[in-house]
Amino acid sequence: MELYKGRPQNIEGRLDREVRVYDLLDSLGIEYLRTDHGHADTMEACNEIDKVLDVLICKNLFLCNRQKTKFYLLMMPGDKPFKTKELSSQINSARLSFASAEAMEEYLDILPGSVSVMGLMNDKENAVTLLVDEDVLKGEYVGCHPCVNTSSLKIKTTDVFDKFLKAVGHTATVVHLTGE
Questions:
Q1: CB contact set of 116 (below 8 Å; sequence gap of 6+)
Q2: CA 84, CA 155: separation in Å to the nearest integer?
């Protein structure tokens, strides 16, 4: 795997959802490093990418309440275990579960295995609440997919949370997860 600065030179064969991420980041003046790779839809595969990007790839979980009326995108360190009960109590939402692939595509225009904060650019109605574990904010950089799991980006944390989220009309709710 090689590390590149910015968007691919040739976008032929790239999915529209990926190209739209590069277009938005470029229009906002957000610099990023990128690597292309095989499908990375597990944290084990992401660990190899972490080494190339020299950043911890976030675990991104797309969740919903029991009634499927509230949707959440949770960003947390990839090496931290997720405990539903721990998060439920902080957001006052009992019985959290993983949202369906259909809801993921409807709200974020992302397929399973590609969940990323970048998908919030497609949530024009603000139907998805972004939840961020406080440890993610401690890092200088965030690693994420550009809405596909065959590329990964390294972006300054401040650019994601100050510039990107503001541009796409979202805010982050910070949560404290111990994984215990």
A1: 60, 110, 144, 145, 146, 147
A2: 28
Rounded to two decimals, what is the model's pTM? 0.92
User: Are the C-beta atoms of 84 and 37 separated by less than 8 Å?
Assistant: no
Contact between residue 107 and residue 122 where contact means Cβ atoms under 8 Å apart: yes
- β-pairing, 141-144 vs 172-175, is unpaired
> Taking 90 as the threshold, does the pLDDT of residue 56 lie above it?
no
Structure tokens at 57: 């790839």
Task: Tell me the mean pLDDT in the region 149-153.
Answer: 91
pLDDT at 42 over 90: no
Q: Domains of the chain, with CATH numbers?
A: 4-175 (3.90.960.10)
3-state secondary structure of 40: coil
Predicted confidence at residue 50, as pLDDT, reads 78
